[in-house]
Amino acid sequence: MSEKRKEHRDRLVVLGFVSVLLVLIYGPLAPWFVSADRFLYDTFASNIRVNTLDDSVIVSIDPARKSRDEIFAEYGRLMQSFQKQGVERVIIAEPPAMEVTDELPGWAAMLSGAMPIFVPANHRLADVSNRTGAFVLEPDKDQVLRKSRLWYLQGGSMLPSLPLAVALSSQDYSADLRVSAADIEIYLSSYVAVERLSPGQALDPNFSTNGLTGKTVFLDSSPELISAIAVLPSGQFVTASEITAQLLADIELGQSIISPSWVRAMEWMTPAMLAIMAALFLPVRNRRDIVLLTTITILAVILVEALFLLIGQLRLDLGRAVIVFLGASLLSWWLAGTVKKASINAFKRGSDFLAAGRLEPAFAEFRRCNPTETLATAMYKLSLAFEEQAKPERAEAVIQWMKKTQGAPASENKFSLGGKKGTPQRLGRYVIERKLGRGAMGAVYLARDPRINREIALKVIPIEKEFEDEELEEARLRFFREAESAGRLTHPHIITVYDCGEDKHLAYIAMEYLQGIPLTQFTDPKKLLAPNKALELCARTAEALDYAHNQGVIHRDIKPANLLYSLRQDLLKISDFGVARLTDNNRTKTGIVLGTPMYMSPEQLNADTLTGHSDLFSLGVTLYELLVGEVPFKANNIAVLMTKITTEDPAPVSNRRPGVPPSVDAVLFKALAKRPQDRFTNGAEMAIALRNCAKYAA
Q1: Is 88 within a domain?
Q2: Distance, CA of 164 to CA of 552 (rounded, Å)
Q3: CA-CA distance, 471 to 588, in Å (whole number)?
Q4: Which of 492, 512, 532 is the last residue of a domain?
Q5: Could you say which of 228, 453, 600, 687 would form a disulfide bridge with 539 (CB–CB 3.0 to 4.6 Å)?
Q6: What's the pTM?
Q7: pLDDT tens profile 326-381
Q8: Which of 210, 227, 193, 294 is nearest to 61 (CA)?
Q9: Which domain holds residue 558?
Q10: Helical H runs in 86-216?
Q11: Alpha helix (H) ranges present in 568-661?
């Protein structure tokens, strides 16, 4: 399946999924998911700073051990006292229970007096009072009281709520311009405690200088907490008087939380927009980008809701919208994983076919893979294989596919055809641009393959200068044989060998070019990597060596200089496969083995037959140096160095650097064992041990 078709399919899958999710979450399953809206609202509403009315108090009669007549009598005494003290208004949100047959002459006299007294419209006292308002509690299904309507339809007419009726009766009340619709609801957040007085304090003429003059009094026989009838989003338990006091404060002070029609429209539009965004942008991303975009989007949505509520005092419920987007993100994340897994499997099958010389099946499998640099490398090798089989038309088909999937090649004028002094302009078909570095037996150049305009690293060895005439032919055969062996290696952590040849008396190997730095940059004690990072990079190296050893290829020169690392891509690759064997077999005119003896295993120094265990020893030396900034075996001459490598044990690294767990000492002791059979069985085993150590490293 082509990349575009997969993207189109994944977008349709995500769009269909979120469409069904929207219908369910905002339709039949809304009661199950609305808790997400409530959770976000409660979280932010609890932090809203609210105020209470100035000059307001709650007077509560203690009903304990009192008869109904005694409670009624106390109400009467308090009413008379309030009238004498010049109370501005009295609100009885929860009057005492009364029978239908009760006569109310005394109450009627009090309620019709000059002092305004407000009672609930659904109580018996409403029959003898003209100052009433609806007092109705409408908690949500989780029993939290979050909203209160301002108007109620009763008997064919609109009746204000009790707090609104009290506010409308005040000559100083200025209606909040936002609260204008007849069906508007206001929302509760938290309660700011109002001063409470006992009946004795309220009846005491010497209570204060001003007494209760000009104050709003909430009168009830409901002690706080004990008589709580609701819980607010803030988690506070409140009585009827406390609810009324807070709602009245919100209305008169203009701090009501509302949700006008345009906000409710946003609540419906936002999840639809998020669903469309998810379907358009997430299916084409990798898993890391999906997680990042999802996190940013969800945080942005939550921030918008918080700003609406905390600054604009507008309730905008986006909890379910977050769930919709999160569901689309999880599906996209899963789809990205299945595509990646399928691509990995196809790449593995294609590599196996290529190694077996079955080029057409390899081409078919590679075309199922996601375009990556590793895939481009494998396809390049495939095109060369088609050329070797005298199938130029198939090689051209591979090249055209690479150009189509990897993008248009760079302009040909990027080639630098004029070399500097000492630098060849061209070797074989490769155009040399500049020198990258120099090794023990030759130089490395940045070159370009003009056939497909690909950058490569060209390892150049003056083979005729390095070997005597009687050894030259054997060295040449060995060089091409080793390069061919290295060319079979296709692994994410191994520099791929594309081609080899000889031109102008120079042998060359065309290799993958990685814009990275050798790990020698991190062997300076002042520039060391974090221990867990060093362990992870060496674990990747061990995995790559295990793959190479299973292919029958031994590196022979593992050291920091041959481990290239791209910080930007967090990518590590082993270089110089196919070169070390030539170096290892070439003794200079002084008889000293070329290379870097301080990284060599005991059997390599003794010129014994090598196995993959030798590479693991060298990797152990490399890890030691990356952790502490120096190799475990040092000497002033090669004879002493060889003695130390073959007889001495290194000092533990956990004692030399903080953050290195003691388990690393055990791994290094095993990797640097003198006998190959005492080391790790293979690179995979060593990689597991290194990653286990990394879990406990700093």
Answers
A1: yes
A2: 88
A3: 12
A4: 512
A5: 687
A6: 0.51
A7: 999 998 888 876 656 667 778 888 888 888 888 988 888 888 787 777 788 788 88
A8: 227
A9: 517-694
A10: 105-111, 162-168, 199-203
A11: 580-584, 602-605, 612-628, 638-647
Residue type, 359: L
Query: 87: which 2 tokens?
Result: 């109370």
Q: Quote the CA–CA distance of 577 and 495 in Å, as a whole number.
A: 8
Look at residue 383 and tell me if it is in a domain.
no
Residue that the structure tokens 């509520």 belong to: 309
Distances (CA, A) of 385 to 88, 350, 379, 503: 99, 13, 10, 21
**Digit-coded pLDDT (tens) for 664-679:** 999 999 999 999 999 9
Greatest Cα-to-Cα distance within the chain, rounded to the nearest angstrom: 133
Burial class (CB in 10 A: 0-12, 13-18, 19+), 361: middle
Same-domain pairing of 71 and 204: yes
Other C-beta atoms closer than 10 Å to the C-beta of 666 total 14
157 DSSP β-pair partners: 154
Together in a domain, 206 and 76: yes
Domain-embedded: residue 83: yes
Do 545 and 653 have their domain in common? yes
Asked if 214 contacts 56 with a C-beta cutoff of 8 angstroms, the reply is no
* 186 and 333 part of one domain: no
Residue 230 Cα distances to 34, 53, 193, 393, angstroms: 20, 21, 15, 82
Q: Which residues contact 26 (CB under 8 A, 6 or more apart)?
A: 268, 271, 320
Q: Which of 555, 686, 671, 517 shows the shortest CA–CA distance to 602?
A: 671
Q: Three-class SS string for 317-386?
A: CCHHHHHHHHHHHHHHHHHHHHHHHHHHHHHHHHHHHHHCCCHHHHHHHHCCCCCCHHHHHHHHHHHHHH
Return d(Cα 294, Cα 330) in angstroms, integer.
9
Measured CA distances, 357 to 63, 350, 363, 495 (Å): 97, 10, 11, 21
Q: Which pairs count as long-range contacts for 109-115, CB under 8 Å and 24+ apart, including other chains?
A: 110/76, 110/79, 110/80, 113/83, 114/83, 115/79, 115/82, 115/83, 115/87, 115/89, 115/90
Instruction: Identify the pLDDT of residue 54.
Output: 83
Alpha-carbon span 188 to 190, nearest angstrom: 6
Report the CATH number at residue 548. 1.10.510.10
Pair 239, 59: CB distance under 8 Å: no
Whether residue 359 is contained in a domain is answered as no
Residue type, 19: S
CATH number for the domain harbouring residue 453: 3.30.200.20
